[in-house]
Amino acid sequence: MQQTPQKPDKRRSGKGRAATEMKPVEFLRWLWRQLTSMRTALMLLLLLALAAVPGSLIPQQNIDSLKTSNWQQAHKTLTPIYQKLGLFDVYGTPWFAAVYILLMVSLVGCIIPRLFVYWRNFRAQPPAAPRNLTRLPDSTSYVTDESPEEVLGRARTVLGRRYRLRKAGDGDAVSAEKGYLREAGNLVFHLSIIVVLVGFAMGSLLGYKGGVIVLVGKDYGFSNQLTQYDDFDPGSLFQASSLDDFHFSIDSFDVDWLDSGPRAGLAKGFQSHLSYQEGDGPEKTYDLRVNHPLSIGGTEVFLIGHGYAPVITVRDGQGNVAYSGPTVFLPEDASFLSFGVVKATYAKPQQIGLSGLFYPFEVTDAKGDPINLKGDIGDGSAAVLSFQVWAGDLNAAAGGSIYQLDTSKAHQVTAAGGKAFNLHKGQTVKLPNRLGSVTFNGIERWNKLQISKQPGKRIALGGVSIALVGLLGSLFIRPRRVWVRARRTADGTLVEVAALDRSGGGDTAAVVDGLLTQLRGRTPEERA
Amino acid sequence: MTDHSWETLSNQAVAAAGVVYFLALLCHLVEWSALVGRRVGASAPAEVAESALVHSGGVQTRRLDDSERVTSADSADESRTQRVALFGRLGYLLTLIAVACHFVGLVGRGMAADPNRVPWGNMYEFTLSGTFVVAAFYAVLHRRFKLAWMAPLVVAFVLVFLMVGVLWLYEPVAPLTEALDSYWLVIHVISAILATGAFTLGGITSAVYLVKAKTGERETGWLSRVPSLDTLDRVAYRIHAFGFPVWTFAVLITGPIWAHQAWSSYWNWDPKEVWAFITWVVYAGYLHARATAGWKGRNAAILALVGLATLWFNFIGINYFSTSSQHSYAGPAVVSTSTTGAAEVRA
Questions:
Q1: CA distances from B165 to A444, B10, B160, B170 (A)
Q2: Do A209 and B264 touch (CB under 8 A)?
Q3: How confident is the model over B292-343, as pLDDT tens digits?
Q4: Min CA distance, B270 vs chain A (Å)?
Q5: Using the beta-carbon criterion (under 8 Å), do A305 and B267 form an inter-chain contact?
Q6: Is pLDDT larger for residue A16 or for residue A270?
Q7: CA of B176, closest CA in chain A: separation in Å?
Q8: Between helices A181-206 and A457-476, what is the axis angle to 10°?
Q9: What's the mean pLDDT in A445-463?
Q10: Pairwise CB contact (< 8 Å): A269 & B291
Q11: Residue A145 pLDDT > 50, yes or no?
């Protein structure tokens, strides 16, 4: 990018009054020139880098909402200020957008005029040799017995292979130029960035990203409808009608546990066996793994996590089933010690709430406290459900997360000695005060799936790839001008050779040396 | 060989590489100390060759002038020059041996894993690979770009980072976590490591540029050894010009493709991604700055160093300061949703 040359303003020469009226236009022109100057582009680039920093240090709402709300609770004074500045959603704020939009305007304003310049220059002749070649930084001269015509003829043959030669009016010199594609690469690179932005914008405006936890088993499943998602993050122009029509269920799920080595007890890999159906089409199967998403139409399904769902039955004080079914517990750590909540809001006479930990493989440590050994559940005989019980009003009307128990209007009911209740698979415990009972029936598994649609991703990828090709051209093609002049003097024929590298990265001295060798037909060592 | 013996071999090879790098560093320091008080005129052959490239005629006369001036100090300078050349060569040779050991350490690391894999699955291994690439680039480009002047800087850098890796980042060999188990690990990480190595060498060159720009031309000392500002600038540019497309490939092509496959979205504004982007933008700034009046030279060199700082902060800093990054490979991914009540249940 370079500054566009200032054109004389013809309107100025008109009447004085007209000139004052033109002031705003002049100001706009001035502004435009400033904006499209290289210096401004450079400042905007650095500003963009700087503006991106806070988003990596402050938790971002749309990336990790839980962490963000925890942070906001811990920093009561800073939160309102940060909220005003949009620091919890840096990459969606107007000031961040302002930086990159200005940068794009600057880029377009710089590139479009250069496109025309390039088009004109592409067919132009190499410029004639400067009057005094030896003044160029990389130049040399020698005297020979050959005639100027012989020397220039040889220069034309040698240079003609890789350079474009000036045809007319070259007089006693040969002018050559090469590396025209460097600027083409440069232009392609900058234009491709706009293509990438278009693709990226399409994805974030029209696309969506949703998460859902699906239980493993043919009885459960997922249909691609808005209501089925646990969380859903649409682009601002997203329309529900663009959801692809499909449904699937997870037939089975395998985890490959590590039994030995430094990561023993952790999962090495996991795989879901999926049956899916697109619209009314035939049922198909797919083995879903991390790094191997399933794509259905333009939508993709990703396996990003898994866990256990203990099957829990709660009977109320009247002996009726108030809650029953697999309950999703979320892993707390790599050993799959998991946390979950049961809200039996229909229990009578009082609502019953459980908040508990699930130990896939429980052992007792030296102090007698339970610890979880590993995530591999084996036959399930070492799995333990440990929970606290709350009775009273669970505030169900207020909504709230299904993973959080509102105990503000409830009171805790403890086992003998004030301890938590512990159950192995198949066991039932009677709650005190004739509240009812809790049964740990069995263990199911669940998968956390991410489902997303990102239109324009191929456009973005294509744009980046072309940008890279352009970049390579603009970095490694060396624009170079070379001149050879031969003149008769009293001592013989004086030959001057000079080279100019317009990219500032080339080693023109080597070019001059090489050319000299070819012109004189001898190696540099012989000369020295 | 069993996996265990491969792991032992790797650890021993890395230790050996560390020792040999240290010996190489000592040699180069001796080489530099011999430069103190030595005049430029009595230059080592390599430098004459280099200046001969720049201008064929000028060198001859300058050498003549110098030899006229030098009379009594001649023999002292002669032995110094020999010492400089000897220790320089010895240091370079030791560096080559260390790079070979380093390479064995890397291969052993990959062979020790079951199944065998590329040796960059965690921070320790990335440090091992990154420093190897820096050292290997230096060793390869040593002749072509005449990098003898940066020898102690590169060797010291590699040694320090290798030791940091061994002392603080070491982890026993383990299989890859699920998300890393992809062929993109090879393509994405290898390009990131190559670019990191190149940017590091380029950054060292730019740092020396700044030092030299501040002190000016010196007759004696190690700076007399360093090529002219123009040459430094050009070498730095060439190394960065190699690193930038490779970084573009790593961060803006293979990274998003892999992120798309593993995490469902090709760009997540994950802290590591953000910093990789910042690094990219700063180096883009560097390339533009070299072509802008008022930014050439000093400011461009400063930008290159800022870029290098963001690069290494991204590698080391983000993994320690940011817990939300999906790039922290410490533990397997845990579904992050509400998990506040667990503590009270246990209490």
A1: 42, 14, 9, 6
A2: yes
A3: 777 888 899 999 999 999 998 888 777 666 555 566 543 333 333 333 333 3
A4: 7
A5: no
A6: A270
A7: 8
A8: 160
A9: 92
A10: no
A11: yes
ipTM for the complex shown: 0.79
Question: Which amino acid type is present at position A44?
Answer: L
How far is A302 from B123, CA to CA, in rounded Å?
Answer: 26
Q: What is the pLDDT of residues A164-180, one digit of tens each?
A: 888 866 778 889 998 88
- CB of A157 closer than 8 Å to CB of A149: no
Mean pLDDT over B199-208 rounds to 94
**Contact: A66, B336; criterion CB under 8 Å:** yes
Q: Do A209 and B265 touch (CB under 8 A)?
A: yes
**CB–CB of A481/A177 below 8 Å?**
yes
3-state SS assignment for residue A11? helix
Contact B70, B62 (CB under 8 A): no
For residue A372, give Cα distances in angstroms to A6, A264, A383, B178.
Answer: 75, 13, 9, 22
Render pLDDT for A328-380 as a digit per residue (tens, 0 to 9): 999 888 888 999 999 998 888 889 999 999 999 888 888 877 888 888 888 88
Q: A374, A354 in Cβ contact below 8 A?
A: no
- Separation between Cα atoms, residue A457 and residue B192, nearest integer Å: 22
By Cβ distance, the residue of A63, A355, A448 closest to B324 is: A63
Inter-helix orientation angle B255-263/B271-289, to 10°:
170
Q: Tell me whether the omega of the peptide bond preceding residue A524 falls within 30 degrees of 0, making it cis.
A: no
Tokens of A475: 């970095």
CB–CB of B267/B259 below 8 Å? yes
- Residue A308's nearest CA partner among A199, A384, A229 is A384
CB-based contact A513 B245, cutoff 8 Å? no
What pLDDT band is residue B3 in, cutting at 50, 70 and 90? Answer: confident
Question: Dihedral of the CA atoms B117, B118, B123, B125 (nearest 10)?
Answer: 100
CB distance A274 to A287 below 8 Å: yes
Do residues A484 and A172 lie in contact, with contact meaning Cβ atoms separated by under 8 Å?
A: no
SS3 B119: coil
**What SS3 state is found at B220?**
coil
Q: What is the pTM of this model?
A: 0.81
B295: nearest CB among A42, A355, A457 = A42
Residue A274, beta-bridge partner list: A250, A286
Tell me whether residue B46 is exposed, middle or buried, using C-beta atoms within 10 angstroms of its C-beta: 0 to 12, 13 to 18, 19 or more: middle
Residue A355: count of CB within 10 angstroms of its CB:
23
Beta pairing class for A321-326 and A299-316: antiparallel
Distances (CA, A) of B331 to A179, A221, A334: 51, 29, 7
What sign does the CA torsion over B4, B5, B10, B13 have?
A: positive
Q: Which residues fall within 8 angstroms of residue A418, CB to CB, at 6 or more apart?
A: none
Q: Which residues of A touch B338 (CB under 8 A)?
A: 66, 330, 401, 403-404
CA B64, CA A238: separation in Å to the nearest integer? 78
CA pair distance A475, A464, nearest whole angstrom: 16
User: Phi and psi for A357 in degrees, rounded to 5?
Assistant: -115, 140
DSSP B272-290: HHHHHHHHHHHHHHHHHHT
Chain A: give the shortest CA distance to residue B21, in Å: 30
pLDDT (tens digit per residue) in A89-106: 888 888 998 999 999 999
C-beta atoms of B178 and A291 within 8 A? yes
**Dihedral sign for Cα atoms in the order A333, A335, A337, A339:** positive
Give the contacts of A162 (CB within 8 A, at least 6 positions apart): A178
Q: In whole angstroms, how far apart are CA A363 and each of A274, A367, B108, B230, B313?
A: 34, 11, 37, 69, 41
Nearest CB to A403 within list B52, B295, B338? B338
